[in-house]
Design a protein that fits this description.
Length: 217
């Protein structure tokens, strides 16, 4: 079997075990057994548990970014349609590869360097993409012209954070409920976020109403 194919089998097995057990509890014996190879061969190909985990993070991160970019509609499509299609791609991918998403979102973020940097690089690429979409929407003729770059970046971070949290919920809605489809989950987030973004970019920001009344003794 070609080395590249064998290595992907090892990574497949590692992603499954890391998602089930967590990084610290996962054993190289389990990974080798699931991959159908010897433990020395895993070490020969991937050197150590740390390097194996890093390789899993890099592969899953690259696959997720590729899936999102591939799903996005062409640039001449309105920004909301581009975001909608990107979200559908994001939720479809995380639903199809829940173990990969668990490794990225639940494991890579919680075990320090170098793993957190691998996750952060992936997240920054997606945030940059969403920032560009929001900025493009803000530049349309009927949108408020002075939406600050800092506000745009903050909105992009908020939207990506919401998508990450929602992916976990969609993969495990609890109480025996059926999993929502990628389309349903993307629509849920668009209804939550884009209506507010549209108001903001059209010069109708939210403001608190009324005054806080003093509590009576």
């Amino acid at each position: 079997m070609p080395r590249a194919v064998r290595e992907q089998q090892m990574l497949d097995a590692a992603v499954t075990i890391f998602a089930r057990r967590g990084y610290r509890a996962a054993s190289m014996d389990e990974i080798a057994e699931l991959a159908g190879v010897s433990k020395p061969l895993v070490y020969l190909y991937l050197n150590s548990k740390e390097e194996l985990f890093s390789a899993c993070i890099r592969r899953e991160a690259a696959a997720l970014v590729t899936a999102v970019r591939a799903a996005v509609e062409p640039r001449d499509t309105p920004p909301d349609r581009q975001l909608w299609s990107g979200l559908r791609g994001f939720f479809a991918h995380t639903a199809e590869r829940p173990d990969g998403w668990a490794v990225l979102h639940n494991q890579a973020r919680t075990h320090g360097e170098p793993f957190v940097s691998e996750f952060a690089a992936m997240r920054e690429e997606i945030v940059t993409f969403v920032t560009q979409l929001i900025a493009a929407a803000a530049q349309e003729d009927d949108c408020v012209p002075d939406l600050a770059d800092r506000e745009v970046a903050g909105l992009a971070h908020a939207l990506v954070g919401a998508a990450e949290s929602l992916a976990g919920w969609a993969n495990d809605p609890g109480d025996g409920a059926d999993r929502p489809s990628a389309k349903e989950t993307a629509a849920l987030l668009m209804n939550f976020a884009w209506a507010g973004l549209a108001n903001l970019m059209e010069g109708r920001p939210w403001h608190p109403r009324g005054r806080t009344t003093a509590r009576r003794s």
